[in-house]
TrEMBL record:
EC number: 2.7.7.56
Record carries keyword Nucleotidyltransferase: yes
Annotated GO MF terms: 3'-5'-RNA exonuclease activity; tRNA binding; tRNA nucleotidyltransferase activity
UniProt protein name: Ribonuclease PH
Organism phylogeny: Bacteria, Pseudomonadati, Pseudomonadota, Alphaproteobacteria, Parvularculales
BP-aspect Gene Ontology terms: rRNA 3'-end processing; rRNA catabolic process; tRNA processing
Gene name of the record: rph
Length: 236
């Protein structure tokens, strides 16, 4: 059994609370068990300087963890500069969302995503991606309602999930206790149509086999399909 008592192919309890903040064009509080992330999407009628005149837009993301999102207080990165981990995660979020957005249809505009981890218990990057898509889609629906764009540039859903080898067995959606002791861990970003956007996989000790990787991939596909269905229900 896993420490949480879940089956090896079982997600944590996942929920999405849309429209969580008053001012953002799109917002979502996403919960993966005890990992809670506030995701907002802000519409911007400008593009980065390097994209001006290119006839297409951009989606970018920022990510951060609040000081008491973990067991011990962390210092705010605003005082110390962003860590390499933070920079890597926010780039991952941006890439994941751009994979399902028609940037030309967006026009010379950008959508700014903010993912703020309120409480962390493993899988903060995967929860951020999954919740950020909800906020992004909400912001694009807002822009259509306002007559800013004719139709949403969002072409598909995208979700992400972690998997790993826990006591030698493939397991889905690792919490912190599992992630900190797993023999291998991986993050998968998958579209609603089943397309692979990104895979991050690392052995923490002995190398894992191709069979083990295929088992993790199978769990991730099923898990992301479940998350994608939950995303779709929010906008049905």
């Amino acid at each position: 059994m896993r420490p949480s008592g879940r089956a090896f192919n079982e997600l944590r309890a996942v929920s999405f609370e849309t429209g969580f903040t008053k001012h953002a064009e799109g917002s979502c509080l996403v919960r993966f068990g005890d990992t809670h992330v506030l995701c907002t999407a802000s519409w911007d009628e400008t593009t980065p300087p390097w994209l001006r005149g290119a006839g297409r837009g951009w989606v970018t993301a920022e990510y951060g963890m609040l000081p008491r999102s973990t067991n011990e207080r962390m210092r705010r990165e605003a005082k110390n500069g962003q860590s390499g981990r933070t920079q890597e995660i926010q780039r991952l979020i941006g890439r994941s969302l751009r994979a399902v957005v028609d940037l030309k249809a967006l026009g010379e505009r950008q959508i700014l995503i903010d993912c703020d981890v309120i409480q962390a218990d493993g899988g903060t990057r995967t929860a951020s991606i999954t919740g950020a898509w909800v906020a992004l889609n909400q912001a694009c629906a807002w822009a259509v309602e306002q007559g800013i764009i004719k139709s949403s540039p969002v072409r598909d859903r995208v979700a992400a999930i972690s998997c790993g080898l826990v006591s030698g067995a493939p397991a889905l959606d690792l919490d912190y206790d599992e992630d900190s002791t797993a023999q291998a861990d991986a993050n998968f970003v998958i579209t609603g149509n089943g397309g692979l956007v990104e895979i991050q996989a690392t052995a923490e000790g002995d190398p894992f086999t191709d069979e083990q990787f295929q088992a993790l991939l199978g769990l991730a596909k099923d898990g992301c399909a479940t998350l994608s269905a939950q995303q779709a229900e929010l906008f049905s």
